[in-house]
Amino acid sequence: DAGITQSPRHKVTETGTPVTLRCHQTENHRYMYWYRQDPGHGLRLIHYSYGVKDTDKGEVSDGYSVSRSKTEDFLLTLESATSSQTSVYFCAISERGTNEKLFFGSGTQLSVL
Amino acid sequence: SQQGEEDPQALSIQEGENATMNCSYKTSINNLQWYRQNSGRGLVHLILIRSNEREKHSGRLRVTLDTSKKSSSLLITASRAADTASYFCATDSGGGADGLTFGKGTHLIIQP
What is the pLDDT of residues A48-100, one digit of tens each? Predict the structure, then answer.
């Protein structure tokens, strides 16, 4: 998967608890993305980063925050998880900021009970 | 909001047959891409076609783009069991670094 590792692969948590998902890349790519995938919706962009400490919101950013303190790591935090955030979360990277080819991680299955 | 919409939602064919999937989108684009997703895995980039191109080939894949109709098609020839997967079209409208907009996907099943 192009040197992208997501952790954890699976997580079950309770409503109201904070959750952090990690994306780690070994490609030294500048651009990183968090998507969520839900039945009937396809993939939707949550947040993206165009460099260390440079992030921006995507289509469905409410309830999520991100941080990127190092090129290789992009963290997605659910401050207070809700059942509507039950989803599969994918991290993706891109070498150039032209969206011409994204490489995806294997995903994190998150269940919020 | 969804930019691309794939059609059909599901497709089942016999091994060796050709599979055609379609994608329609709403706004002008810089390029359109197709991705494959095997069950439980991340998406894998298959092919990219730019807005000024009409057709592109890669191995058994053939992609067409009609910007006047805002539509694209993906043809997989001589299908194999390993082609069983979900296929997504994704559009790049802004040309910036803000990611792609994906459709909901076509689930392709190749019957042996």
Answer: 998 999 999 998 999 999 999 999 999 999 999 999 999 999 999 988 767 78
Select the more confidently predicted residue: B2 or A111.
Answer: A111
Task: Give dist(CA B102, CA A72) in Å, integer.
Answer: 25
Quick one: which H or E segment has residue B73? Answer: strand B71-76
Q: Compute, in degrees rounded to 10, the torsion defined by CA atoms A12, A13, A19, A25.
A: 0
Q: How far apart are CA B79 and CA A67, in angstroms?
A: 42
Hey, which residues 37-76 in chain A have their CB within 8 Å of chain B? 40-45, 48, 50, 56, 58-59
pLDDT of B94 above 80: no
CB contact under 8 A, A45 and B104: no
Q: What does A87-104 look like in DSSP terms, one character per residue? A: EEEEEEEESSTT-S--EE
DSSP state of A1: -
Q: What does the block give as tokens for A108? A: 């994190």
| Residue range A9-49, pLDDT digits in tens | 999 999 999 999 999 999 999 999 999 999 878 899 999 99
Q: What is the pLDDT, as a whole number, of residue A39?
A: 86
d(CA B80, CA B15): 5
Element (H, E) at B96: none
Contact B42 A104 (CB under 8 A): yes
Chain A residue with CA closest to B88: the answer is A42
